[in-house]
Write a structure and sequence with these properties.
The complex is a heterodimer of chains A (about 110) and B (about 240). The longest helix of chain A is centred in the middle third of the chain and has 13 residues. In chain A, the strands form 3 sheets. Chain A has a 3-stranded antiparallel β-sheet, with no helix packed on it. In chain A, strands 1-5 form a two-stranded antiparallel sheet. Helix content of chain A is about 10%, strand content about 40%. Chain A contains 1 helix and 7 strands, in the order βββββαββ. Chain A is mainly beta. By secondary structure, chain B is of the alpha+beta class. Chain B contains 3 helices and 10 strands; from the N terminus they run ααβββββββαβββ. In chain B, the strands form 2 sheets. In chain B, strands 2, 3, 5, 6, 8 and 9 form a 6-stranded antiparallel β-sheet that branches. A 4-stranded antiparallel β-sheet of chain B has the order 1-10-4-7, sandwiched between helices. The two termini of chain B are about 30 Å apart. The chains are: A mainly beta (about 110), B alpha+beta (about 240). The interface between A and B is large, with 41 and 41 residues.
Amino acid sequence: SLRCGEDVTVCCKRDFYIKFKDIQWDEWIIAPEGYHMNYCMGQCPQHLSGSPGIASSFHATVFSQLKVNGINTATTSCCVPTERRPLSMVYFNSQHSIVKTDVPDMIVESCGCT
Amino acid sequence: GSPGCASCGLPPMEKDAEERLMIEIAKQQLLEKLHLKERPNITNTVPRVALLTALRKLHSGRVRQDGTIELENNIPTKDQGYEIVSFADINETDNSDKASLSLTFQFLQERGQSIQVLQSSLWIYARSSGDPHRDSRLLARVFLSADGGVSGSNRTLLIEKMLEVQESNWHTFTITRTLQAFLDGGQHRLRLEVSCEEDGQNLCSLDNSAETPNQPFLVAQVRLRDSHSKHLVRKR
């Protein structure tokens, strides 16, 4: 999985971090201090399409439907997350109780082409 | 931005606009995953010293004196489990010749939401007398009080336990079934009374100050369940 840089145009992972203090969410989120969301971007030429991944099956289905219906068959595939990990959070809920939870699939770890 | 993708149909965006959009998406994603309609509006927070103590105890609570299992990583991630820490509102009462600690926990549920309690413990700080010639054991009792009732009347004994207090330390009392019954009953205020005695003297830490790191708290490991079938559900 490539990490996005100035010279990278093919499918890659763009690091994206939100500091909760910057959006005034540190008042109710105790930990962590921020969220490494990350996302995928870049081109997926034909020779890169079909890389395996947990998220590819849905997109692959969409593409086969597009092809079956003759819509935009010349298009390239999509750059999507292929691996994610959970985010552990400690926060105040609406009742002011403190909650710790592990939210699955929150942080994009790697990207690939459908 | 990247060239438009056929499966999402979004046109390429300017960098600033893309960043603003990503922040909004991140906010929505966080709220949705935490089952919140909007960000909680927190006005009066728990003192940081109490919070840090509770979290430290929570994360070091892998092996406990009462043999209960560790809290962390106990629920499969797919079941969307939660750990809840709730600090007590303390009312110190004088009941005949002994002091007792009256604890009130606010424990509200969203309407239509049913919670399964996997494990719950009450954490109480017991203080040593500091006298090596005195018995280092003391008898601790936890009662369930009727909501709105006068302390000492209409209460049910939940747990009775001998504590070793050679040194001042935290002690846990398992209240899983009590909390489950409380939540199933749709009540809002859980009232518990704690008494610790040795030769008629109360040795529990009964500090009523909100600034103390020894403020009693309740930890619950829970997960959502379907209110109709009582079975776990997953949304896709």
